Amino acid sequence: MSSGQHNFARWLRGTASAAQPADVRQRTGARTSRRCTGLGEFTRDLAGTDDQKLCALDLGPTSPANITFLTSRNMRAYNEDILRAAKDPTFLTRQEDGSHRIDVERFFAENLAYPKDHFDAILAWDVADYLPEELVRPLVERIHNILKPHGALLAIFHTKDAGLDSPYCRYNIVQPDVLELDPEPGFRIQRIFNNRHIENLFQDFASRKFFLGRDNIREVVVGR
Q1: What torsion, rounded to 10 degrees, do the Cα atoms 192, 208, 119, 129 define?
Q2: What's the pTM?
Q3: Which region holds residue 216: left if phi is over 0, alpha if psi is between -120 and 50, else beta?
Q4: Where are the domains of the chain?
Q5: pLDDT value for 27
């Protein structure tokens, strides 16, 4: 696939889904809702104009609610389910000891292949918690490259009290500070980041704001 196809084939539009807001995330297979202070901070000034549309990238599973939320704010909504892409066995290479490891260079040649300074905003959700170790730092480096100066990133991290069994979810924006969580099976947390780890991960960015939720979720808004 050409880089042009990568850049524009994922521009999607859809319709919003409805949800009732709640403040407690329940660890069940059902959809739940939670307030997200970080999302409110992230979306506060996030809007384009009729003459100049902003570009936003969602790194989670495709969400019609997110697409509608972003396009209603005069934004072009792009989507790449980066975690599911990382499970593609064709990116694995066999090591000398017989183990398999993701070919990082080839993975990013085929994923997130966007021009430098392309996006005004990126929704990274909790992808870093579940992503294979060898992809985490290269992902952040790629985000730094494709995010515009003064652009914003929203990331979510589970604390150690949340536990390694916390389900991976599709995050659907139902209000500027409310998310609906839809569990996506097949993924397990690979690591727990503390504040120092997160600071180091985003050390090349200009700013970082932390918000700790009551449900053992750390929300981080990062400025490029």
Answers
A1: 0
A2: 0.85
A3: left
A4: 3-82+114-223
A5: 43
- What the block records as the tokens of 182 is 């839809």
Pairing of strands 119-125, 100-102: unpaired
Give the residue carrying structure tokens 């005069």: 74
Structure tokens at 160: 């150690």
Q: What is the pLDDT of residue 30?
A: 79
Three-state SS across 88-154? CHHHEEECCCCCEEECHHHHHHHCCCCCCCCEEEEEEECHHHHCCHHHHHHHHHHHHHHEEEEEEEE
What CA–CA distance (Å, rounded) separates 39 from 4? 30
Give pLDDT tens digits for 108-119. Answer: 999 999 999 999
Q: How many helices (H) and strands (E) does the chain have?
A: 8, 11
- Residue with token string 């939720």: 213
Contact between 206 and 218 under an 8 Å Cβ cutoff? The reply is: no
Measured between its terminal Cα atoms, the distance across the chain in Å is 29
Q: How far apart are CA 117 and CA 115, in angstroms?
A: 6
> Whole-angstrom Cα distance, residue 147 to residue 97?
37
Q: What is the CA radius of gyration of the chain?
A: 17
CB 60 within 8 A of CB 171: yes
Chain segment 17-45, per-residue pLDDT in tens: 333 333 333 444 678 999 999 999 999 98
Euclidean distance between CA atoms 223 and 148, whole angstroms? 10
Q: Is the distance from CB of 56 to CB of 39 less than 8 angstroms?
A: no
Which CATH code for domain 3-82+114-223?
3.40.50.150
